Amino acid sequence: MPSRCRSRLVVFLVLLLGALGGRAAGPEIHSGVALIIDHEGNRLFERNATEVRPIASITKLMTAMVVIDAEVPLEDRIAITEADRDRLRWSRSRLLIDEAILTRRELLHTALMSSDNRAAAALGRTTFAGGTPAFVAAMNEKARALGMYDTTFADASGLDGGNQSTAEDLVRLLNAAARYPLIRAITATGETSLRPHATRPPLQYRNTNPLTRDERWTVELSKTGYLNEAGRCLVMQAVIENRRVYAIFLNAQGQLTPIGDANRLRHWLQEAGELKAKSLSAHKSAHQD
């Protein structure tokens, strides 16, 4: 390459990098705990990734895996009972006590998509003969098997602040959950309709992650969570610019902060792709000059 063309290429790249500024260095993430890894194992961003934190309803991904691993019939019909009422946080549910009856598959839908706590409690109560204690023991056993050594589960819903993990461990949880086609299908679905009450109209359920309804996104698996002590949480596997990304956002203070972080990640990856394309184009032009 002639020295004049080489100099022109260097100047172009310097100007291009300057125009993109700090965005080329990494995504702007506001969550207190975050870890973003691509499918090749490249760490795109991390903050407090080994800090043990309450994970709220992210817990329900483990709940779903334990239910499926138990190989119990997913079409069994299960009634919501007084035992499923949340007496810790007194969270609301549209599944009426002693009225709602759903199949185990439908309970998975309501627990994973809309994060219904009564649905998760019913799954924990009915999967094993030993009831909820046996179920929680199986959750912790599964965590150890996955190498999630900094993770502890205390209930099936995530309402107990004792459900704790790290961003590092939650990447392992995401990878494991992604091996279950049913979990992928449910958590990537934007909305669905179920009829848990025989004498009432069907209920419309929407995914608590609005990105599943955003046509700009290809979400393959996701789960949100919230408790006062956990902050706003989001874990997600998505494809951005032909790149599979695993994103963990915990301890976010604003209601939409994890969603904003995900969108800022997507914009950053798109800009990084544009930078690479422009760099290649400039390189080709210099060779042709």
Question: In words, what does this structure look like?
Answer:
The protein has 289 residues and is of the alpha+beta class. Helix content is 39%, strand content 20%. It is built from eight helices and eleven strands. The chain has helices at 3-20, 59-69, 104-113, 117-126, 131-145, 167-177, 181-187, 257-288; strands at 33-38, 43-47, 53-54, 77-79, 101-103, 164-165, 191-194, 203-206, 218-227, 231-240, 243-252. It has a five-stranded antiparallel sheet, sandwiched between helices. Strands 3-6 form a two-stranded antiparallel sheet. α1 (3-20) runs antiparallel to α8. The longest helix is centred in the C-terminal third of the chain and has 32 residues, at 257-288. The chain starts with a helix and ends with a helix. Residues 9-23 and 277-287 have low confidence and may be disordered.
Task: Looking at this protein, list some descriptive labels.
289 residues; alpha+beta; five-stranded antiparallel β-sheet; two-stranded antiparallel sheet; 8 helices; 11 strands; 39% helix; 20% strand; globular; disordered C terminus
Helical coverage, percent range? 25-40%
Any idea what the shape is? globular
How many β-strand stretches?
11
Computed structural class: alpha+beta
Give the number of helices: 8
- The low-confidence runs, each spanning 5 or more residues with pLDDT under 50, are 9-23, 277-287
Question: How widely separated are the two ends?
Answer: 9 Å
Q: What kind of sheet is the major sheet?
A: 5 strands, antiparallel
Oligomer: single chain
H/E topology pattern: HEEEHEEHHHEHHEEEEEH
User: How large a portion of the residues is in β-strands, by DSSP E?
Assistant: 15-25%
Sequence of strands across the biggest β-sheet: 2-1-11-10-9
- Average pLDDT taken over every residue: 90
What integer value in Å does the Rg equal?
22 Å
